[in-house]
């Protein structure tokens, strides 16, 4: 089946062979800016015990950018993604993450070597992601248990979690903690603080229900606005979907539902004021996100106040993960294809080179959507991620049908994804070269042809006529 990229290549080759200049768009224009693959947060200190590189980044850490705000986040995502692809990370990479944990069980965003833990700097996002990473790797039950205990101690009576202890809860942090609880084998519906609401009830407090405008129902707000109107937030809604669907990282393909996600059913003329039931939460959120993806050309748009409505790669990737976990892989497919065709710059062309958080998120997204992270739009994401940190101990296990290529192998058939691959660029170049040679040959023959041969006899036409008439 011809993909859009192949059709574009064919059109380009055909136009050039006909002697007409053409330059079709191969993919949507990349935005000027996009949301990073890591969460925002305040600065914090940290102890890695690992030597630093010449750039000041610890040698065991993935990525070359400043880790102040996302060190633990990006390390955890990288370890989850590499483990999913059966790439065994270096001991130094795992040790770096373990060494970042504080004595009370929490993780900060990052703390420099030798710096003491500061309780106020520990955050739920880093801790939740570290718990998922160590749960996926296995063999680290003690730090996982300590991390879960810290998370449970930070839950408020309304069932929610804040980014840093002592601040108001938000949908993103609550969703990430729900992911961590599930990864550690706990039931968020039975996780409550001091007899308060459960984690699922806390998550539901951010979802817009029947009291909202029809086009907003099912989406999640980041935080409710006291005394003011609330509007859904794309990243909050995308990350909440994975949690409300009962999933965590890495996402495995769930049972596929044949029908599209169901929008929240609200009785006509009745403005309900209660929370969305947990049984309906994922479907309602999936329906809202599916609508936003369709409206945005199969990607979510950045909705940060004051920012331009450019493509939001991070939210789009999380939406794919959530939709797959909710059983709506068909609704996730087009967004996954869009990421394959446009995500390389987000993953690999930041100011510090490869962004390990973005790359790992795309690896997880590709596999969840049953695409190939070794050839995702022509990019070997697994190789990019592995190269951004310490050398792995081992690559994919031989014979695994999903590990179609070892890291570092050549890019192969673009049919596996809808992105435009380097192989097709080479093919188009060869076609262009052949076409140019044919045109030059024809022109020379016409110029050198004797005048008497300009009107060949009927008997000679079949042998001496133009090549296209033979």
From TrEMBL:
Residue spans of biased composition, Low complexity class = 31-60, 450-460
Q: Spans of biased composition, class Acidic residues?
A: 461-470
Name the keywords, alphabetized. Answer: Membrane, Metal-binding, Signal, Transmembrane, Transmembrane helix
Signal peptide limits: 1-27
Write one Pfam family the protein is assigned to. Answer: SQHop_cyclase_C
Determine if Transmembrane helix is one of this entry's keywords: yes
Instruction: Map out region (Disordered) in residue numbers.
Output: 31-61, 390-415, 446-470
Protein's name according to its UniProt entry: Squalene cyclase C-terminal domain-containing protein
Origin species, per record, is Kitasatospora cheerisanensis KCTC 2395
């Amino acid at each position: 089946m011809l993909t859009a990229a192949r059709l574009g290549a064919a059109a380009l080759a055909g136009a050039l062979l006909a002697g007409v200049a053409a330059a079709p768009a191969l993919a949507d224009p990349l935005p000027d800016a996009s949301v990073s693959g890591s969460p925002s947060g305040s600065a914090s200190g940290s102890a890695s015990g690992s030597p630093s590189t010449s750039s000041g980044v610890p040698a065991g850490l993935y990525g070359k950018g400043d880790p102040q705000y996302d060190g633990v986040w990006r390390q955890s995502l990288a370890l989850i993604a590499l483990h999913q692809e059966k790439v065994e990370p270096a001991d130094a990479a795992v040790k770096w993450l373990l060494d970042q944990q504080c004595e009370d069980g929490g993780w900060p965003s990052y703390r420099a070597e030798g710096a003491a833990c500061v309780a106020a700097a520990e955050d739920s996002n880093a801790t939740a992601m570290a718990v998922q990473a160590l749960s996926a790797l296995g063999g680290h039950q003690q730090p996982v248990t300590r991390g879960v205990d810290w998370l449970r101690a930070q839950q408020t009576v309304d069932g929610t979690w804040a980014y840093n202890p002592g601040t108001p809860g938000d949908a993103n942090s609550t969703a990430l903690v729900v992911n961590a609880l599930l990864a550690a084998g706990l039931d968020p519906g039975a996780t409550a603080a001091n007899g308060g609401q459960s984690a699922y009830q806390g998550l539901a407090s951010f979802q817009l229900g029947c009291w909202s405008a029809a086009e907003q129902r099912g989406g999640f707000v980041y935080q409710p606005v006291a005394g003011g109107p609330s509007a859904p937030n794309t990243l909050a809604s995308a990350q909440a979907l994975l949690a409300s669907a009962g999933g965590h990282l890495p996402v495995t393909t769930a049972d596929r539902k044949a029908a599209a996600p169901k929008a929240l059913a609200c009785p006509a003329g009745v403005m309900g004021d209660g929370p969305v039931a947990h049984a309906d939460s994922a479907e309602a959120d999936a329906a809202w996100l599916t609508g936003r993806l369709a409206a945005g050309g199969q990607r979510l748009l950045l909705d940060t106040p004051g920012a331009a409505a450019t493509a939001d790669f991070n939210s789009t990737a999380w939406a794919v993960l959530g939709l797959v976990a909710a059983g709506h892989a068909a609704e996730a497919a087009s967004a996954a294809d869009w990421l394959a065709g446009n995500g390389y710059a987000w993953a690999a062309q930041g100011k510090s080179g490869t962004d390990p958080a973005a790359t790992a998120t795309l690896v997880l997204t590709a596999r969840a959507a049953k695409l190939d992270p070794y050839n995702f739009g022509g990019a070997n994401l697994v190789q990019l991620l592995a190269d951004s940190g310490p050398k792995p101990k081992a690559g994919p296990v031989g014979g695994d049908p999903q590990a179609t290529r070892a890291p570092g192998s050549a890019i192969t058939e673009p049919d596996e994804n809808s992105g435009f691959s380097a192989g097709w660029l080479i093919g188009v170049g060869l076609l262009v070269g052949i076409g140019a040679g044919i045109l030059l040959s024809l022109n020379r023959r016409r110029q050198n042809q004797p005048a008497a041969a300009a009107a060949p006899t009927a008997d000679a036409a079949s042998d001496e006529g133009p090549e296209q008439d033979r």
